[in-house]
Amino acid sequence: MSLRRLSQPGKPLLAALVAGAFLSSFGAQAEVVKIAFIDVLSGPFAKTGEGSLAQLQEVVLQLNAKAKAKGNDTKFEIVPLDNKGLPQESITALKSAVDQGIHYITQGGGSGVALALSEAIGKLAAREPEKAVVFLNYAAMDPALTNDRCNFWHFRFYPSSEMKIEALTTYLIKRPDVKKVFLFNQNYTHGQQVAKASRSYLARKRPDVQIVGDDLIPIAQVRDFAPYIAKIKASGADTVITSNWGSDLTLFFKAAKESGLNLNYFTMNANNPGTPAELGSWGAEKVGVIWNWGHNAPTPELEKTYLAYKAKSNQDFIFAAHWNSLSMLSSAITKAKSTEPKKVAYALEGMSYKSPIGEIEMRKTDHQLLAPLFLGIWAKQGSKGVKYDAEKTGYGFRSEVVWDSYVSAQPTSCQMVRP
Fold first, then answer.
1. Which of 16, 253, 350, 383 has the most CB atoms at less than 10 Å from its CB?
2. What b/e sequence results for 41-64 when a residue is b if at least 16 CB atoms lie within 10 Å of its CB, and e otherwise?
């Protein structure tokens, strides 16, 4: 029977009661918020993107289960869109998401892509406010994103490259054996920033360290790293600092292992899908990764997530940023009492949150997450601090150092323009 028929003369009370019950029932349903995952799902770096997507979907599954138990929390749905790792393809994917009525996106594979998306989202919000999009950046590290190119709609749930290098160089103060460093990075904005920060921070904290090489390689184009290995060997380096990721890191390690280049390697991505399998026993006590979490860290709640995901997928859970971004997004929606992007963005900035990795804060001035950082050192499973291995290698990253957020926090030049 329709509400229109019930509202005939003589039946206003019944109509009101039925309508009220209908609206109450509707309001009790959890709203589904779609999030576009715009990242690399094809090409040489697809393994990283696919692994990230699968782990994001696992986080959504767990958060949605909690929402169901509570009965009225917001639920999330992921919409994957392949950007092929290219800025222009990412803008096309963004348009597709907006056309579908999606107001939230997440991305992390490449700072060049993140910068293009952030700029496009800012212009879109200024031009068509009703189509505003909140950008949850889970891994793109270029400092510009939270400095001169900061954007109200962009939130980074991951440390910038400068934050990672700040933490690493603080650690290297206590490593007198590190005397000659070779910088080896991809030739795009992120790699260039890592090289620049490494030079600057080492000069300030370890002026005795000599930079014996500084190479930038074309991203995703090199297949034979032997010439680079020979160059590093000839330089006399005892340590390599690299921000490379994807096949550029995996193939580099393959060549280093084959040539017996037994140095210290400090990376930002050695725990990404596919890379641990290449390290094997060779990487023990040589390879380190600066990350926002590691599965051998003393974090019981994320340990449960790791174990649940591994039991289902036989893969390692490494993207803690997904847990933080969606958990904080959910809290911001609750705080705003709305899923409207502008209200949620205002609720999100400045938010403090009790994460499984400790207290974290989305800094209001530039939308940079302040959180603990971890240095993992590749070591044999069963040795001190290595409860779990990675990719069935019998080796994993132990938590060598856990830095409080104040150690890596950087000043910002962001002049935030708010709507």
1. 253
2. beebbbbbbbbbbbbbbbbbebbb
Give the three-state DSSP class for 415. coil
Nearest 10 degrees: Cα torsion 268, 273, 277, 282: 0
Ordered by start, the domain boundaries in the chain are: 32-159+300-371, 162-291+372-407
All residues at 6 or more sequence positions from 234 whose CB lies less than 8 Å from its CB, including other chains: none
Q: Is the per-residue pLDDT at 154 higher than 90? A: yes
Amino acid at 351: M
Question: At 72, is the pLDDT very low, low, confident or very high (cuts 50, 70, 90)?
Answer: low
What's the fold here for domain 32-159+300-371? Rossmann fold (3.40.50)
Banded pLDDT at 19 (limits 50, 70, 90): very low
Q: Percentages helix, strand, coil for the chain, rounded to the nearest 5?
A: 45, 20, 35
Helix (H), strand (E) at residue 200 = helix 189-205
Residue type, 64: N
In sequence order, what are the beta bridge partners of 34? 77
Which of the listed CATH numbers 3.10.129.10, 3.40.50.2300, 3.10.180.10, 3.40.50.300 matches domain 162-291+372-407? Answer: 3.40.50.2300
Residues 6+ apart with CB under 8 A from 322: 52, 55, 56, 59, 106, 138
CA-based nearest residue to 162, from 172, 150, 147, 175: 147
Please name the helix (run of DSSP H) or strand (run of DSSP E) that holds residue 97, with its range, or none: helix 87-99
Alpha helical stretches, state H, 270-392:
275-279, 300-313, 320-336, 341-348
pLDDT in tens, 257-315: 999 999 999 999 999 989 999 999 999 999 999 999 998 998 888 888 889 899 999 89
pLDDT (0 to 100) of residue 71: 67
Cα separation of 212 and 331, whole Å?
48
> What pLDDT is recorded for position 69?
73
Structure tokens at 342: 């502008």
The pairing of beta strand 75-82 with beta strand 32-39: parallel
The answer on pLDDT for 328 being more than 90 is yes
- Maximum separation of any 2 CA atoms in the chain, in Å: 95
Confidence of residue 60 (pLDDT cuts 50, 70, 90): very high
Does 18 have pLDDT greater than 70?
no
**Average pLDDT of the residues in 228-235:** 98
Q: Judge whether 139 and 200 are in contact, CB under 8 Å.
A: no
